[in-house]
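Before relying on records like the one below, remember that each one covers exactly one chain. Contacts with other chains, cofactors or solvent are not represented anywhere in the record.
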Amino acid sequence: MLERVLSFSVFTTHFKSCGLKCTPLFFRQCISKSRVQQHSYSDFPHSCKNHRFIYGCCFVTEQLLVIFIYAGIKHRQMMPVKKIFTLLLTCLPLLLSAQNKHGQALIDSLLHELPKQKEDTNKVNVLHTLAFNYLDNGPDEGLKYGNTGLKLSEQLGYKKGTASLYNIIGRIYAMKGNIAEGLATETKALNLFEEINNKAGIGRCYIAIGIIYLNQCNYPEALKKYLAALKIFEELGDKPNVATCYNNIGTVYNGQGNNREALKNLTECVRISNEIGMRHTSATALLNMTRIYMNEGKMDEALKTTLTARIINEEIGNKLGVANCYSQTARIYLAQKNYSETLKNCYASLKIWENFGAGKDLAFILEVTGDALRHQKKYNEAEKYYRRTLLLAERIGSLNNIEYTNKDLSAMYEQAGKYKKALSTYKAYIVARDSTFNEENTKKIVRTQMQYDFDKKESAAKGEQLKKDAAHNLQLQQKNIFIYGTLAAIAALLVIGGLLIRQSKLKANHLRIELEQKQLRAQMNPHFIFNCLNSIQHFVVTNDVKNANKYLSGFALLMRQTLENSKEGTIRLRDELAYLENYLALELMRFEDKFTYKINCPDNINTDSIEIPSMIIQPFIENAIRHGLCYLRDKEGKLTVRFYREGGYLFCEIDDNGIGREQSQKLKMGSDLNYQSQGMDLTRQRLALVSKSSGTDYEITVTDKKNSLNKSEGTTIIIKFPITT
């Protein structure tokens, strides 16, 4: 109650000093205006009123500046800078006090409420929240409460609670270095969440499993899990977990050496975390960003960022976060060769780690401590820390720590003149490195082996000369391997590229032939042939021998032209005009002069030299007649085919005064006809393929003509051909 009274008292005092009036109602309005997304109270049992109150006090004080500014806007007064500064100084102790009490207050509240709970799901939720809050400040206690809650949840058949507890217990196992048990437990949680279709739970399991893979340097699997989790939480609008996913994805890219993508994802994590007040996640992302700054040589920026992260972790009471900040600071000082400051931060980190289980972060700081002692030539002490690192790394399956520790240990033995041990540990380093990155490099092994052999010889001068000769030969050998390897790689790429290009051309050619065959079948479709033969039969039955012969001759010529044109990819414009003239004459006879047609090609177009793709124009003319002109009842149909040239393109315009596409579609849907016109679709596909393979620009434009009453007056189709000769 004291914090609540103090917060309102602070407001009242400073509002009066600025000539403003503050009432409880106005105070609540300010709170509503300054509110940002925080941890949801639904994450905690309803009985934890003490925690809710303390967290609310922390939130109120944290938002004082925003509220004060809003008050100024409300009363239309500019807030003096001095008043704002005084307000912040007054409220800062309350803010820090509330933040530091936040974590412990929640745990105390939960422990107080636990004995009052019945053996039901509410008690499971309390135990789950206890285990979660012990995660960073006492994992052994968290494991105890987690297992107790798990046993009760399974007895009650409470699947959601069981899955959530498996998720927390798996994280604790992984943190303590029990990777196999952690992965098995997280898999159980994932299966249960999938069974009850709890997407948020599935996402949390993906994150936990991704962390396990990341600690084992299995970057592809880790990234796969993080991206799957990110997709889920973005769909759910869960910003806290979205921020966590961006942080973890950035860590994966950092491990792969992709600084650009790593910094991009970590920056997004910090932005979202600051936006919703997730200081824990923001501090974690900032700490990960320091590794990138170190890789880029920005040591001052790395120190500044690490200090910011440590201050945040200290304020929120995250002991493991503080320990990791000390570890990262030690690494920065190590890179700057400030070994005394390195050890100072190492020991500060190790002091915190003594109260927690073993994990990759502990292995890291043990290794850094060994490095600092090695550079101070305290080889015996350094060896002890290196050996502790190796034992821990082997137990948790961290190949990354095994690799670098063996490398550093080998360097230490070499400095101490213990070449046999240097060789042995360097071979172990090579094995670990190949397991992680699958690369082969034996230069260091050969150099160490030579040093070991030469050290046995009596003549130092002769041994030194032999070593130089061997090193020179090794350098030449490696140079030759590099040259020949590069040439072989280039040759392989050229061969593969040639095969891919050839395969692409064959595929495109096959598709072109297939489309041409389909279009040929579309032009010689059974409906058209049947109608033509039916027209010929009609002329014969009515003893119209002249028209029968004329129609039969035209039909035979059309079939011959169709087959001849289909053999070639392109034909002369003159042949296309003759083909269209013959086709339209037959259609005019078949439809008993229901329409007139005109083909117009000006003299300035050289029809003998210009070539166009075959079987392109006829399907559009057929479509205009079949679906537009043949349905006309109250007027004569008119079809105009006009060719004209603009620039380097030939245009073919097909214009009709039929019923239009919209009315034709309605008639088609209302009839029992099953005929589907494929000619236009096949033509579009052919032109698209020709454009892609030849790099030319073919276009088809279809326009529905409307009159002033918005009634259809036909259709205009324009086909654009690049002029080829």
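The longest strand covers residues 712-722.
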